[in-house]
Amino acid sequence: MNKKYDYLVVGAGLYGAVFAHEAKAAGKSVLVIDRRPNIAGNVYTEETEGINVHKYGAHIFHTNNKKVWNYVTKFADFNRFTNSPVANYKGELYSLPFNMYTFNKMWGVVTPEEAEAKIRQQREEAGIADPKNLEEQAISLVGRDIFEKLVKGYTEKQWGRDCKDLPAFIIKRLPVRFTFDNNYFNALYQGIPTGGYTKMVANILDDIEVILNQDYLDRKEEFDSMADKVIYTGPVDAYFGYREGYLEYRSVRFETEVLEQPNFQGNAAVNYTDRETPWTRIIEHKWFEFGKDANGNDLPKTVISREFSSEWKPGDEPYYPVNDEKNSELYNKYKELAAREENVIFGGRLGEYKYYDMDAVIASALEMSEKELGR
Ligand code: FAD
Q: Best substitution site from 46, 55, 59 to test ligand 1's pocket, by max atoms within 8 Å of Cβ?
């Protein structure tokens, strides 16, 4: 049978878009489909009141991978945004990640030596040699004050459980810096694509046929008959009709509001680290682009999103894979099934049930393209 396309790409997120671009550049015919009404997958941004709103959670591009940086900057100009979140503990504000500003605010210490001594003293006071749970692990790493004000409430909201009931291994280390450096990501390259991620992905998909609002699994046979090979970036368990069971995720719920004021919190991200505030973070989207519109004008309004950690149940939007033993075992079963699927390549965060940062998913798509397309 003569097929129309060399490749059918299921999913117009970063993985699918990068592969489609590479395939097209290699002279192949490609069709991209997505079940959503928009391209860009989870990095989708939508303009509201002149502000690019990150619809599926705040996305900050950061990488040490020069090849990936050179690649993405072909499709977008990046601004100089630096992620410097602020922690709000019952109205007290602290710099993140833990650094000299944090320690000065917490204890009034001025020199790195004083800060190190304070943390050492609190660790010794706690006297925990063999941490039995997350609480003991955190206290043994950073002492009681930082744990109580900046770790405990936030972690409990994220996991929906008391830190005493969470395993110690979740936090292997808690980065502390004895410098005045608020730059959260220690990456060589960092920024936000000017004009939003959707525009960047549209540029990657330039000249490629994309059909939206199409669920591949609803009409699998028909779609399969249209191409020699399928690149599938949807959930791997869904592909196999969940026959081995559901892979679990942690979910996030967003409540987004337009406010009739120019500045709500003065920063893109504020983490609420107390237990009582129900949300974990508030994102004020305009600060990813310094509060300016596309023409460099100040914006009169603002858009904020409160983030709530929530339990995931089948049917919810999958966010973070839960890479515990049970889910890893289940994924391995699906991985075996996937390996037997001729003419289908499973990729990306859902296809491989893996947390990928954006740079890593792009690197992975480029690597697979090289293998598949020989370029
Ligand atoms: P996706 O973007 O999920 O794309 C998959 C696409 O497949 C979707 O569009 C989906 O609709 C489509 N699809 C699925 N099933 C079907 C089907 N049956 N038929 C048709 N289409 C289908 N990374 C960073 O580097 N920095 C950050 O700050 C950052 N923040 C994040 C915040 C959150 C809350 C989350 C969850 C992730 C964050 N990431 C961040 C990671 C980033 O989102 C991922 O690296 C990236 O989205 C992965 O791209 P993908 O193409 O693999 O998946």
A: 59
